[in-house]
Structures are given as C-alpha cells and as structure tokens.
Hints:
It is flat, with a radius of gyration of 16 Å. Helix 1 (3-29) runs antiparallel to helix 2. The chain starts with a helix and ends in an 8-residue tail after the last helix. The protein has helices spanning 3-29, 42-62, 68-85. It is built from three helices and no strands. It is an all-alpha fold. 71% of the residues lie in helices and 0% in strands.
Amino acid sequence: MNSVESEIMDIAQEECAEVIQAISKVRRFGFDGKHPDKTFNNREHLEEEIGDLVCMFDLMREHDMIEWSNVIEASERKRHKLKIWSDIIVTGK
Length: 93
C-alpha cells in the first residue's frame, strides 16, 4: 500500500466512525433532534457524514483500490440476505 492509499484508508476509517456517531445521535434524539449549538438537525448531519464516506468510496475506486462492480454485487447479495433474514425489505420492492 502506498502513502496515498494509506491516507485514503485512514480517512475512510475516520468517516466510518463519524457515520456511527451520527447514527447514534439519530437513535438517541431522533432525526429531527438538534443540538442547541448546531444549525443542522441529526438527519442533515447523518447525510453529511454519509456523503463524506461516499466520497472516500469514490476515491478508493478512482485509485483502483476497489472494483465498483464487485461492491455492487456484494450489495445485491446483502439485499438478498436481508430479504430472507430481516423484515426491513418487503419482497417486490
């Protein structure tokens, strides 16, 4: 792994942690909850953090660290598993 790849991985890891923290705030205080010192609500904060993480995925793809078609295939496999083992995906959608 070269220094650019290493930095991309480090930043992606940090962004994953920030998404986890944003999800925790939504779970504790709701999507519309807002810290008194902030101008954005928890939904907007979650969207921002997910956007940051998606940027890191894009950079991984641009630097040939991941093959996007493999990511899409993995996503489809996960969706299939969720249809079997979870109620969050309704068949036919």
